[in-house]
Amino acid sequence: MNNKGLFKQKANIYVIFLSILGIALFSLYGNMTFDAYTPILWTLMACLVTVLVLCRHFTILLPPKGNALSMDSAIYLACIFAFSLEFTLLILFVSSIIGALYQVKILWWKHIFNFATFSIMIVSAYSVFVLMGGQAGVISPELIHSYIFALVVYMLLNVFCIGMYFYLLDAASLLANVLGVIKESISSYISILILSLLLGILLLHQPFYGLFLFSCLLLVLSYAFKMHFKLYEEASLRANVDQLTGLYNHGYFKELLEGLVKEQKAEKMSLAMIDIDDFNKYNGYFGHLQGDELLKCFGLVLKEGCSGTNYTLARYGGEEFTILMPNTTESDAFQYLDELRKKMNDTYFKGVEILPHGCLSFSAGIIYQEGMIDSSSELLGQADRALYYAKAQGKNKVHLYDEKDVVQKNLDEEKEIELLEQQVRIFLSKDINTYKHSKRVFTYAIHFAKKLELSDYEKKTLIMGALIHDIGKLEIPRDIMNKEGKLNPHEWEMIKKHVTWGKEIISTNKDLLHLVPLVELHHERYDGKGYPHGLKGDSIPKLARILCIIDAFDAMTTERPYQKTKTFEEAIVELEHCSGKQFDPKYVPLFIEMLREGEMRVDREIEAVNV
């Protein structure tokens, strides 16, 4: 038996126990001797039962959650104060039978449970009332403490009996349940106490007229609060609904997710974030008014797709939408979104033929959550990343978020490299030649990394290091960088400092610290005659030794102001000549092999960089 079944079994046992206890108390204290009451009392009893039935039908709805407040408790307390325990239990019994006869949609065991709960509350409240000096038939200001204690016991038992049931049903915090109900209903119970005292006084002095006034008050309050709650719902709806599409808005959706986090409901749940493909292009071509019509149409198709489900659909902002899918596995969510995507593709809207896919389409990212939710922001962030992955794969696609997914990993690396390239382009904007050199070395590194037996982390580090390895040249004066002819010793020493300056620049960004060895040490030589530290052999990090070969080859084959350009073959001869001296002999043959294997392809890519 699973936990849910176990909780339900405990709740059922509790219902049976409480029902037996309540019925036992009714049998012990209830007086079913009919000749004990006068005809007037019987008539009054019939009127009280009628009013009790009206109370259960005309409840008072309280915003914001629509909790129903019934006046029957006020009548029971008034009868305790004005008459006797036996009289009160008798009208409870008769009204419960009548209620069960006309409220046939309510399960029979609930009628018994409610009757038993009221029996326990009434008997306990009356016992405390008498214990505190209260006397039935006498309502006096001097006895106010007895009325208050009776109400407190009545209220606490009501809250505890109901709260314990829900606690056993889903194992939520009992204290939190009880305190929550008390907080929400304390003002209602104070109102019930006041009404019970007023009704008690009327029952003692003008019983029938008093009941008539009470019934009128009940009907007026029920109607007034019903109208008030209706207006509140309408105002809440306007505040929670997007006026353009008629769907829930961003604020409501965020509040809903925060509520799930706060309640910590353990359930299977999927969250989808949807974005209309190329909406800005459509909006720019046809204008905002037509774009709004497209949003309406899109929202309507989504709404039709969600009809008949318990999914919550919202316009998250702009052309983004979200769907919350409780008790939905990742495979079911994926299938549902993919079918919805195909339906959207088949929905024609004026002008969509100008879009890249030639139809109305969207990209969607799905995040699946099982168990406790740590953070709504984290959940939305993962759904947003899944949406990015869907768009990065060509749009009109649904992507299920998975941290182990190879596609996601590759896209993350591409995005990281793209951001790094943007930084390099900005930093080296004053020296376009150095930027082009960095891009060429980057291209070589991509191909060489595929050939070498490197881990995924090493491949990524080598490629990113190749892109940013000459960042320190930003500090070198432009006249030295562009000088034609041979550099003098002073100028050459300044050129050599670019590795140290590069290290200093990179070290300011903690996300790039793993690239420092490549930036600082790519001019170290295998024979120990390099700079800045004169490291030798394997004391030079492996990736820096590999980058040294790539960097030198591109420097030899690219025109520079202070050195003569070599052809590819001449540069290859130079690499072989310096193998074991300047370059690691292990990697030189592999690099040359890579060049010969993919010479035409690499040449075209390098040529594109130069252009």
Shape by Cα distribution: elongated
Largest beta sheet: what is the strand line-up? 4-5-3-6-7
Low-confidence stretches: 604-611
Number of strands: 7
- Number of helix segments? 24
Gyration radius, rounded: 40 Å
**Helix proportion range:** 55-70%
End-to-end Cα distance: 70 Å
Helix/sheet category: alpha+beta
Arithmetic mean pLDDT:
83
Residue share in β-strands: 5-15%
The description of the largest β-sheet is: 5 strands, mixed
Features:
single chain, 611 residues, alpha+beta, 5-stranded mixed sheet, two-stranded antiparallel ribbon, 24 helices, disordered C terminus
Explain what you see.
The protein is of the alpha+beta class. Helices cover 65% and strands 7% of the residues. It contains 24 helices and seven strands. The strands form two sheets. It has a five-stranded mixed β-sheet with strand order 4-5-3-6-7, sandwiched between helices. Strands 1-2 form a two-stranded antiparallel ribbon. Helix 13 (376-392) links the parallel strand 6 and strand 7 (398-400). Helix 7 (174-205) runs antiparallel to helix 8 (207-240) and helix 21 packs antiparallel against helix 22 (568-578).
List the helices and strands and how they pair.
Elements: H1 3-29, H2 39-57, E1 60-62, E2 67-69, H3 72-82, H4 85-102, H5 108-131, H6 144-170, H7 174-205, H8 207-240, H9 250-263, E3 267-276, H10 279-286, H11 288-306, E4 312-317, E5 320-326, H12 330-345, E6 362-371, H13 376-392, E7 398-400, H14 406-427, H15 432-451, H16 456-468, H17 478-481, H18 489-496, H19 498-507, H20 516-521, H21 542-557, H22 568-578, H23 588-597, H24 599-610
Helix pairs in contact: 1-5, 1-6, 2-4, 2-8, 3-4, 3-5, 3-7, 4-5, 5-6, 6-7, 7-8, 10-11, 14-16, 15-16, 15-21, 15-24, 16-21, 21-22
